[in-house]
Description:
Blueprint: H1 2-73, H2 77-99, H3 105-175, E1 179-187, E2 202-209, E3 218-227, E4 241-244, E5 247-250, E6 253-259, E7 264-271, E8 279-287, E9 290-299
Antiparallel strand pairs: 1-2, 2-7, 3-6, 3-8, 4-5, 8-9
Helix pairs in contact: 1-2, 1-3, 2-3
Amino acid sequence: MDAEKKEAKEINKYSLLIVAVIVLALIACGGGYYIFHQNKQMEQLTQSFDLEKEMMADDLNELSLQYEGYKFSVSNDSLVAQLSTEQAKVQRLLEELRTVKSTNAKEIARLKKEIATLRKIMRNYVVQIDSLNRANEQLKVEKHEAEKKYRQASSTAASLKKEKEQLTERVTLASKLDATGITVTPVNSRGKLAKRIKKMEQFVVNFRIAKNVTAQVGEKEIYVRIMKPDDDILVKSRGDVFTFEGKEINYSMKKMIEYEGEEVPVTMYWNIEEYLSPGTYRVDIFADGNLIGKKSFELKD
């Protein structure tokens, strides 16, 4: 009886030991599974943080490129300096992101928040730059309009100047004296018409200063040049000159007349004291610095 009790007691001990072993085995398996599951979750979390870091780095690189592009698109030095400052902040955050551990969730969250702030600042700059660009475009339009108006004004001024010059020229031409009815008569010593050169003693030059109500009235110096066939001028003295077109030229005869705007007859005499050859001669008449008439005539031997 005692032996049976002893045997039963031994069996109970072995049963309890087996149960304990099984329980410990189950606990070990459960702990291993938990550790495996935790490691798996940590690995997934690390991969998620790595992916988030890459996306954040892409965002920062994009921001940096945007700042760089806007720096070249604006001409405002103050704004360019501000953009450079913000771009430097982006570069600093990019360096911090590269060094932070993927498991440092708190630091990654901070960097993510700063990136969001930088994006908000960027949007403000975009609005400011767009406003400046619109203002610049408006200024370009206004400048173009101003230049157009200036060209139109310049063209109008040039046109008015030309019209004024043309009007002045017409007035000048209108006020210019005109010698009409010019005749040159060679006469002999008795004042009769001489047809042969050897009998000619004098040239009688007759003409009329035409009526002109626009011409300036008063005393007028009339100059006459008698030109020989060889283009030499008949003169009594080489010192007898007057001004024409900015040059001093010789004259043959001169006469002072009183002009009141009405027609004035003029007669001038040239005493022939030089040798004359046959050919075509010409008389040019000047007044007020203008050539007011001319007449050619023939002399025969």
